[in-house]
């Protein structure tokens, strides 16, 4: 699991400025600010997917004689799952004893247990997982003695989409995020979305503070933070990535790779940043697999 360290970590606004500097375009022209922010967030997501560094456990409430459970549902709360971790599924038999479940594909289940879908409800021993639709199935189905919050799934998850901008206001215990525009990302409207993320005031009133968000109200864009110096409508802020600070420097490299390749504008520069990004990613996680769609195709130059 990625440690959340903040001694030398970067916030989104710092990364934004770094990318703008390397694009030799300090104010938006060919690349909009929103493009830059979006590519930085895509970089964070790419790093999390490749490294599987963000990990959490969800508790699923099982129902008697129900075989499959949708991890995307609001009730199950694991819609941001990338994949289930190795040895990541446990069942609490009868609500008392934890037992690891063994993974099987549906084909393996059909080979090992003829008519496995019709097995009598009992204590689950195996699980199968449909990664595409994020559905987990239990074999056999739980019976009435094993119905309840007894299924525990540990998996790797996507990071939160980060924000940066100039605050709309603040108090001793809050900050109001800027409303989204064509220039900056729109704040998420879901309550508690930014809970437990860190926010840093980059400049102006309250600069230098880096603290945890403990509550967030989507309708008002207000985050609760225990400030020492309260921010105001001049305070420029950036959220800190969830991924390990050891990978923070990779996000600007990813963004520059993708931005320089816009319209084939600077293929050589794009490829240079791409190589630097994957080299750094390999150092971070040990090994990477480059997908076909990560190749840059030279099509034209921006004059």
Description:
This protein has 303 residues and is of the alpha+beta class. The chain folds into 2 domains: 12-52 and 159-247, no CATH class; 55-157, no CATH class. It contains 5 helices and 16 strands. The strands form 4 sheets. It has a 4-stranded antiparallel beta sheet with strand order 1-8-3-4, with no helix packed on it. The protein has a 4-stranded mixed beta sheet with strand order 2-7-6-5, with no helix packed on it. The relative contact order is 0.18.
How much of the sequence lies in strands comes to 25-35%
| Rg, Å, rounded | 23 Å
Overall body shape: globular
The number of helical runs is: 5
Order of helices and strands: HHEEEEEHEEEEEEEEEEEHH
Quaternary arrangement of the chains shown?
Answer: single chain
The rounded distance between the terminal residues' Cα atoms is 45 Å
Number of strands: 16
Domains, number = 2
Mean pLDDT: 91
Helical residues, percent: 10-25%
Largest sheet: 4 strands, antiparallel
Task: Name the strands of the widest sheet in spatial order.
Answer: 1-8-3-4
Class derived from helix and strand content:
alpha+beta
Low-pLDDT sequence parts: 1-7, 295-303
């Amino acid at each position: 699991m990625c440690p959340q360290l903040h001694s030398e970590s970067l916030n989104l606004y710092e990364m934004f400025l770094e990318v703008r500097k390397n694009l030799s375009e300090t104010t938006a022209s060919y690349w909009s600010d929103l493009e830059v922010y979006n590519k930085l967030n895509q970089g964070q997501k790419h790093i999390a997917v490749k490294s599987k560094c963000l990990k959490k456990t969800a508790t699923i409430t099982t129902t008697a004689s129900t075989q499959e459970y949708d991890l995307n549902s609001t009730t199950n709360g694991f819609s941001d799952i990338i994949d289930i971790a190795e040895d990541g599924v446990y069942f609490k038999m009868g609500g008392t004893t934890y037992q690891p479940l063994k993974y099987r594909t549906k084909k393996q289940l059909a080979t090992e247990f003829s008519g496995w879908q019709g097995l009598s409800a009992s204590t689950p021993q195996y699980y199968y997982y449909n990664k595409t639709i994020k559905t987990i199935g239990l074999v056999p189905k739980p019976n009435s003695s094993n119905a309840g919050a007894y299924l525990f799934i540990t998996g790797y998850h996507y990071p939160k989409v980060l924000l940066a901008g100039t605050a709309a206001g603040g108090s001793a215990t809050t900050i109001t995020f800027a409303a989204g525009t064509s220039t900056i990302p729109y704040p998420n409207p879901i309550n508690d979305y930014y809970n437990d993320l860190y926010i840093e005031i980059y400049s102006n009133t309250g600069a230098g503070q880096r603290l945890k968000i403990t509550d967030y109200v989507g309708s008002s864009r207000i985050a609760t933070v225990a400030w020492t110096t309260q921010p105001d409508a001049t305070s420029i802020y950036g959220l800190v990535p969830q991924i390990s600070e050891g990978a923070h420097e990779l996000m600007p490299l990813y963004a520059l790779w993708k931005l320089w390749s816009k319209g084939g504008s600077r293929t050589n520069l794009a490829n240079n940043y791409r190589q630097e990004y994957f080299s750094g990613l390999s150092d971070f996680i040990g090994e990477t697999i480059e997908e076909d769609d990560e190749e840059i195709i030279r099509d034209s130059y921006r004059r």
